[in-house]
Structure formats: structure tokens, C-alpha cells
Amino acid sequence: MHSTRSQFLRFSTIGVAGFAIDTTVLYLAMNLLGAGHYSGRALSFMVAVTSTWALNRRFTFHAQRSSNRLAEWAKFFTANTAGGLTNYCVYAALVAGSAVVANWPVLGVAAGSLAGLAINFNLSRWVVFARD
Length: 132
Fold this sequence. Notes:
Elements: H1 4-32, H2 37-59, H3 69-79, H4 81-97, H5 99-103, H6 105-128
């Protein structure tokens, strides 16, 4: 089993990939689909959560993963809602309160991602991928 430090580093690295996915999908949704700051972020967050679940399942928590992928994904999504809500609230507050962030939403995505990191890691480690 990996140490907590090793798992956190892997989780954080995957979080960077999730950040890139989140931001890319947000900009695509806004520029190609005409989505607004908030609906675009809801879509981008869903794609990022699914991507980070798959990557964490494979690289961070592979020894603890479940054979029931759908149930595990649902558990991951549900457990990470707390970090996701923190993430989204920070993003929304910054978009609403800062013209700079409204013009550069990536800054809000970054701040939100950092705010939700510890919550998401602990819930993933101790709830989603916990050994029975």
C-alpha cells in the first residue's frame, strides 16, 4: 500500500490534470456552445470529476479500487461534492467579485481547485477507496 504522502502527491498530480481538463472544457463550453460562466463550469466540473476518478482509480488508489466501477464512480462523485461545492463557491465568488477573474476564469478555477484539494483527498482516501 502506498504511503499517505505518495498518495497525496499522485492525487495532487492528477488534480493538475483535472484542472487542465476542467479549464479546457469550460473554455470550450463558453466559446463553442455559448455557455455562461456558471453553466459552463457545471459541465466542466462533471467532466473533470469523471476524469480524475478514472486516473485516481488507476494510479493513486489502484490497490483499493472496487470491482463495481459505476458504484465507485457514484461514491467518488458524491464524496467529492463537498470539495466540489467549496471549489465552485470560491470560483463563483471570484467571478462575481473580480473583473479580472471574470475575464480570466482560469484564475477562479485554480483558486477553487486548491480550496477543494484537501477535502477531496481525504474523502477519496477514507470513504471512496477505503478498504473494507
